[in-house]
Each structure stands twice: as C-alpha cells, then as structure tokens.
C-alpha cells in the first residue's frame, strides 16, 4: 500500500532524507520513529504529495505519485503534526468544505461525523476555528479525515494535544480500522504507543533509516523496551547518562 524507493530530499546542501526505502502492507500499522529533525515529517510530506522529493520513487495504493497524484490524494487521509484548519470557518463549515472537496456520500458521512463527534467529545462545531484550542482543532482535523474512511491514513504525532480519553479512543479506532484493511502510517514521540500498536517499526536518524522490523526483530532476542532500543540506536543513551551525572 505504501512503497518508497531511494527516497531523498535535499534543502540546498542539507540532506533531510537520505536514500530511504519503505514498504508497508495492507492493514498494517507502521510506526515511523526518530529524534527531532531526523526526517520524519519531511518523509510524510513526500509520501502524501505535499513535498516533492529530490529523487526517488513513491507508490501509494499501487499508483505512482508522480503520475497519479490527485487520485492518490483522493484516497488517502493525512493528519499533520499541526492542525491546519481555516481560522475564519466554523467547525461544521470546515467539515462541509472537506466533504465538498472529496465529493463524498453526504448522508453517510454526516452520520459518521455525529458518531465521531460523540466519541471524541466534540460539541463545538458551531464555534469559530480561531477560538478553538490546539486540542479542539486536532479533534476536528481527526474527524475530517476519519469521516471519509480513507484506504491509507498518515498521522504525524496524532495524540499531541489530545486528552487521555480521546487519545485512547483514537488508538483503539486505528487498531479497528487496521483490522478492517486500512493501512496506518504514524509518527510518535510516545514510544509506548508505538510498541503496543505497531506491527512494524522503522527508526530514522539524520535522514537515514537505521533499523526496521517488528518489535521481535528489533529486540534480536533481548528483552528490551522500545525506549531502550531507540536510545541505543540513536546514540542518545550515553548522552542522557552524562547529562544526569552533571546535574
């Protein structure tokens, strides 16, 4: 459902993503992890068509991103790290705007909006977006994506700004959707989420993928948490020890 080959993105002389390969199968939850500035968001932006790669090939749903960009975008959903919602609209106006763009079955989607609003405690659709908190906008953005039931969903730090109940509901919903055949690609700094949810994990650092596989593969026979593995692989464990000793 998601394929990237030799994917590279340069900003001038800086290489943000360096010749990476990715494959995600149908119905899998794929965790894409890395330190700040490692290349996670840049990769998602390339995979979803909002940023052109410097080189490399991308296929989503078996379609080449270069030649079928609109078709790909019609069939996927994207929840960015910062909810980008038009401030001058009210919540329900934004959702209607999204429905118009994607030409969805209005009756069916409106029922989904009611269900999702109840699930996430969204009772502010008549409020102006500019008056909403970050968490309120994040829920609105989630509803605007989940209401369409896209075949592939990309989420960049989706639980940031969500209360504990909403974060738990989102995690359970993503598991449910994956079991029904939806493919999930997510980034998160909460390693416990990735460890419990993801079928496969890739770790990127300085633009390169340094490890990829299931939790069992990454552990390689050792009884380590994902947090321990992540800090070892990204060479941060020793830094943490030194910092703590200094304080």
Automatic annotation (TrEMBL):
Keywords: ATP-binding, Nucleotide-binding, Transport
Taxonomy, superkingdom: Bacteria
InterPro entries: AAA+_ATPase, ABC_transporter-like_ATP-bd, ABC_transporter-like_CS, ABC_transporter_ATP-binding, P-loop_NTPase
Domain ABC transporter: 2-231
Signal peptide limits: none
Keyword Kinase: no
Gene Ontology molecular function terms on file: ATP binding; ATP hydrolysis activity
Annotated family: Belongs to the ABC transporter superfamily.
UniProt protein name: ABC-2 type transport system ATP-binding protein
Provenance organism: Thermosipho japonicus
């Amino acid at each position: 459902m998601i394929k990237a080959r030799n994917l590279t993105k340069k900003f001038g002389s800086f290489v943000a993503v360096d010749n990476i390969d990715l494959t995600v199968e149908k119905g899998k939850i794929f965790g894409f992890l890395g330190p700040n500035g490692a290349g996670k968001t840049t990769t998602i932006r390339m995979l979803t068509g909002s940023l052109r790669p410097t080189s490399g090939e991308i296929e989503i749903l078996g379609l080449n991103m270069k030649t079928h960009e609109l078709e790909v975008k019609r069939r996927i959903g994207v929840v960015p790290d910062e909810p980008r919602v038009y401030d001058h609209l009210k919540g329900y106006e934004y959702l209607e705007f999204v429905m118009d763009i994607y030409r969805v079955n209005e009756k069916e989607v409106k029922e989904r909006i009611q269900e999702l609003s109840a699930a996430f405690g969204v009772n502010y659709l008549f409020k102006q977006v500019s008056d909403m908190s970050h968490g309120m906008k994040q829920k609105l953005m989630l509803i605007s994506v989940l209401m369409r039931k896209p075949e592939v969903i990309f989420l960049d730090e989706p639980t940031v700004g969500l209360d504990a109940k909403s974060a738990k509901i989102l995690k359970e919903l993503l598991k449910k959707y994956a079991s029904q055949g939806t493919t999930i690609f997510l980034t998160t700094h909460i390693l416990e989420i990735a460890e419990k949810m993801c079928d496969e994990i890739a770790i990127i650092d300085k633009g390169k993928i340094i490890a990829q596989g299931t939790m069992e593969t990454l552990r390689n026979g050792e009884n380590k948490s994902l947090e321990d593995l992540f800090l070892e692989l990204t060479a941060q464990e020793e830094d943490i020890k030194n910092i703590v000793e200094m304080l």
